Amino acid sequence: MRINHRVIWVIVLGMVGMGCSSGDDDSSEQTAVVDLESYTPDTGASNGVQVDAGNQSDGDLGGMTPNDVVLAPDTSVDGFGSDVVDSEGDLDVTVPGDVTPRGGLEPGTAILPPDWLDTLLLFGIATDPVSPLSYLSQTAAGIAPVPSRLVLTESMLEIRVAKKSGEPMEGNDGLIESYPYSLNERGEVVVDFRSPAVRISIQIYGTCQYVSVGTLSSSDALVDAGWLTWSFAETFQSKACGGGFGGGGLPSALLMTVHYLRPAKLNSTFVPRLFDENEPFGFFLETSPETDDVHLTRLPIQPGDEDGQIVYWASASVPEDIYSVLEEVLNDWNDVTEKQIGVRPFVLKPAEGDTLPWNPRHRTIHWDGSQSLGAVAPFISDPYTGEIIASEVILWLGDLPTLIEKYVKFLDKNPDAAWVDAFGNEENAMFLQKPFVRDEWAGPRAPRTLQLQSFCFRPLRGADIAEIYLRSGRTLTPEQLTREVVAQFLSHEIGHNHGLRHNFKGSMDKDNHVAEEPSTTVMDYVIGQGRPGSYDQDAIRYAYGQFEGEIPPYLYCTDESVELDPGCARWDFAHPVTSVFKTLDAIAEGIDPDASTGSLNNKAEEEDWNGVFRRARQFVNTDYEAWDPDMLTSAFVELLARVDCGPGCATHPWFRSQLALYLLYTKFVASSPQGQQGGQQWFEFPPLNETDAAILMDSYFNLIVAADEPTSLKTAIINKLPTANVPGAVDLLNKLDAYFAALESLTGAETSLWNSIKAAKAEAN
Hints:
There is one protein chain. The chain has 17 helices and 28 strands. By secondary structure, the chain is of the alpha+beta class. The chain has four domains: 2-73 and 102-263, no CATH class; 285-561, no CATH class; 574-687, no CATH class; 693-765, no CATH class. β10 and β11 (189-192) form a beta hairpin. The protein starts with a strand and ends with a helix.
């Protein structure tokens, strides 16, 4: 193979204010800044990138300009010389026809086969699941894989973004990373992965990026089953992320990263499954960069496979008494796949040596005993086919037995504790503080800038433990309860590893699940569904086998619909409408009567009480009110009863005011279901019918003129009436004005209210 090239120079300078010595005597070889405007690229494959290093300033990054690139010292392996360059300046590379990259002779190096220089590859990084980057992306898989091509220059192997045509993208925007290389005596390409010359940058949101600025240490380049991986202890600094931390906006981070390359579409036996929007099953999707076809993400499982093809490695940190729970859960899923496609694909083995839980070469179940947060199930899928090529489960269930013992003792003494049913609690707030990377965070980015890949994080809540215990009739021992909690979390996460998305309507799909089960699916968050349900069985048959006959009309909704569809609730039980009002009552009962408005506003934001208020209002005049023919309910009546709760009502006036306002709202703001292009949008609440509107205005009139009702509640209603698009709102202001005008004498409080009414009338006009 002959590669035309131009000579590029790796400039090795002394200290230029860009960093510190590594500590050895050879401190003269330091990072150098190269201005790309005067930098000669190789045959259209420029080594230039956008700003990729410097300090954390949004502006002057250590004197760099957007055309600067950080090049590391030339540490290429000995063996590259003039004897491989002919008189025409062409590089003559002759390499054997191996199909798998092999470890090089020096630590941190690898030998590439010729096929990889002409092969479409996937590049990505994975990182420590407790790192700042993983916190932002909620995933140990870290970064969405990038279709890539390898390009050889004089002394650098460039990892470049692959265009839709499969060709490498030229110019600065196409260069992801580069590494020095040489040719050995056999003409093989030997790449030194110990120190990148051009480093990665990762989009956090908008223009905000984490930029790799240095490596403290590296490990050997490893090869296994088509994967080439190399690891770093890598320093990242933020850029263009707002104020703070020297202008970068985010603190610096030291991350343990695993970089990888793997041929795209490597598995020739994997048959992609096209997405059909008419089917009631929710799978993660991949849109092919090549054809724009939309495929289901699926494990490489198909009828006729041998059993035990997919090995999960249990980390050494898994407690001895929990290992058997992991086996039971995998066997539950084996039972599903065996029934549907005749294969038992999963086997559990103890991890060997120092297996990193975030290394994509191994599917792992990792137990992190340092925290009691919950679980996440990241995976990497081939964007061209949807094949899930790497997957793992991380269980943050540390100190679970102690937590369970505490909650069991509490529940035995307080079996009717309101917090058991409450959506608004500290445990749930933790979940809400770790959302998906939000739509408004997305922004334009150079193709070379890597993008976060987010997976939903399921929290461990005290309410979960309590619900399992109470559903058992308080018969479970702490040991049994521990096993049940682990099983329910793991079964849900293994479902994600199959490609399944959440289905938050499984709990209300009463026509498709048996009475003794709370849901049709483990992909719901409802407690008590420890094994795959009917929905899961049919979803596996649909995605992995041949679905013959009529598909049951399963109810389905997932994360994008949680804000828009009130029946799409992460945690609910039984009747969807009565469930949300139980949650409202639990919130109200938990409010300190002396709590200030400011403290309640803060708590409502922290625990997303507005999400509960919104959901209750969304149920008004919907089919959900008749979900159970034997338990017909009216969301409007239930809301109004909690606003106009009569003399001596103990409910905090702030809480009553919030519900009163929601009955006057006709629109709400939520994330668009269209994804990153949608952002936040206005949506309509179901309108009040004429009768409900008349009842509401009469009730508000009586409440406002009543002497013993809270002034703050009255004022909140009055101030909203001018902009309320509810029939009768302006008429109510006129009626109130006439009422107070007719009074012979007014108290100070009545005078203040009348002034508010007159001001509201003026605003309405």
